[in-house]
Amino acid sequence: MLRNKKSIEAEWRVYAEQGIPFDASDEQRVECRRAFYAGATALVRALGKLGPGVDPIEAYLAVFEGAADELKRFIEDGKAGRA
Fold this sequence. Notes:
Elements: H1 8-19, H2 26-48, H3 56-79
């Protein structure tokens, strides 16, 4: 089985380094971290609601495809000033 060894904490560190402005306050950093982990929690919950009798591969792919589509729209909205 293929396992992703990269932790949520490792992803947070990459995001914090690349996505949070250098001059952000400590409070902004804390709020960003909370929001980041809330997003990770939402994704795990979505994967956990697949239910019995569901092909996990197909279901996981469907969740990830839906998330990818939603993130793409979010990025587009951000670029257009709507997010």
